[in-house]
């Protein structure tokens, strides 16, 4: 896990707690104040990009994958910071061409994620980026999509982790970076 420095701490402090959203008993973590602050967003993108770099700061990944939907918001600027391409991982039926698909269980049913079959090449090294690691189901399914493509997961970078849900257990031994654990 990345230890937040003073600038990153200020950025993460902008995440707003919204009680009882989207339903009673849920404490929603609203990242929109962080996204609206240029300095905070810059600091977060730099921190999320770090797992995609070597010790000298050179990119060691070929692509960044962002999971629907807030993973798009964070993953695209991470890809730009690393100088690599961005690949969206979408819910079923949202991509227009041939896809790989993985279905997985949710608390209230099942979901399916897809990625274009030509988005990754065999041997590509990828960094997965999303806003929240909860149970790990979405990240695990995305890792399976990467494997179907013949690429490899170099690491996973999350803005925050809901530690009490133990999502990291679903990811195995992949390099996981989280900027905030709640």
Briefly characterize the structure:
With 182 residues, the protein is α/β, with parallel strands linked by helices. Helix content is 27%, strand content 34%.
Structural description of this entry:
With 182 residues, this protein is of the alpha/beta class. The chain has one domain (6-181): Rossmann fold (3-Layer(aba) Sandwich). It has five helices and nine strands. It has helices at 6-12, 32-36, 38-49, 70-82, 137-148, and strands spanning 16-19, 27-30, 63-67, 85-91, 99-106, 109-116, 125-133, 152-161, 176-181. It has a seven-stranded mixed sheet, with helices on both faces. Helix 4 links the parallel strand 3 and strand 4 (85-91). Helix 1 crosses helix 3 and helix 3 (38-49) crosses helix 4 (70-82). The longest helix has 13 residues, at 70-82. It is globular and about 40 Å long. The relative contact order is 0.17. The model has no long low-confidence stretch (mean pLDDT 94).
């Amino acid at each position: 896990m990345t230890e937040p420095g003073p600038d990153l701490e200020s950025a993460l402090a902008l995440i707003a707690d919204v009680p009882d959203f989207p339903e009673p008993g849920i404490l929603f973590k609203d990242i929109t104040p962080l996204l609206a602050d240029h300095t905070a967003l810059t600091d977060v993108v730099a921190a999320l990009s770090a797992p995609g770099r070597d010790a000298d700061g050179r990119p060691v990944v070929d692509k960044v994958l962002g999971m629907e939907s807030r993973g798009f918001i964070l993953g695209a600027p991470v890809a730009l910071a690393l100088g690599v391409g961005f690949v969206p991982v979408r819910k079923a039926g949202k991509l227009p061409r041939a896809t790989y698909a993985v279905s997985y269980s949710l608390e209230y049913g099942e979901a399916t994620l897809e990625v274009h079959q030509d988005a990754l090449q065999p041997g590509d090294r990828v960094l997965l980026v999303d806003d929240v690691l909860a149970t790990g189901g979405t990240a695990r399914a995305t890792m399976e999509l990467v494997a179907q493509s013949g690429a490899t997961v170099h690491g996973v970078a999350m803005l925050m982790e809901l530690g009490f849900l133990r999502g990291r257990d679903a990811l195995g031994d992949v390099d996981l970076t989280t900027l905030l654990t709640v």
